[in-house]
Design a protein that fits this description.
two-stranded antiparallel ribbon, alpha+beta, 139 residues
Length: 139
């Protein structure tokens, strides 16, 4: 059974977290993602755990039957990639995924080296579609 996630919203400052990023480009890209996700979710950025910037929240039930909260949209500036947490879009929008640009995907993770590698209009559409999917699936 899956363990209860330790990732919870914290009172830590998103701005302070982003300021600590030593990579200029990662910081600039992160600020751009904050703006994009705040606009698409209508929610303010909040730190979830030490390194995830999340927007909004929904209740989910895990395989073990326990419930927990998770952001509706989120990203994390990891060492090797910008990791965006998006649900319900990779399989449902193959044409957008094709047009996105350089990326890799995991189950719910979109990995980007830098925003300059992708079409921002397409990324915005994917984030919007993910937010829509989340709001419909978890009203």
């Amino acid at each position: 059974p899956m363990a209860e996630p330790k990732t919870r919203p914290t009172k830590a400052s998103v701005a302070a977290f982003l300021k600590r990023l030593t990579d200029e480009r990662a910081r600039a890209d992160s600020l751009a993602l904050v703006a994009l996700m705040e606009k698409e979710t209508g929610e303010k950025a909040v730190m979830w755990g030490p390194s995830i910037v999340g927007f909004g929240t929904y209740r989910c039930t895990y395989a073990n039957g326990k419930q927990g909260d998770w952001p509706i949209a989120a990203f994390s500036p990891r060492k090797s990639d910008l990791t965006l947490y998006l649900m319900g879009v990779f399989d449902r929008y193959p044409e957008l995924m094709k047009k996105l640009g350089k990326h890799r995907t995991g189950k719910v993770c979109l990995y980007l080296k830098r925003l300059a590698d992708v079409d921002m209009k397409v990324l915005k559409q994917l984030v919007a579609a993910s937010v829509r999917y989340m709001r419909e699936t978890y009203p």
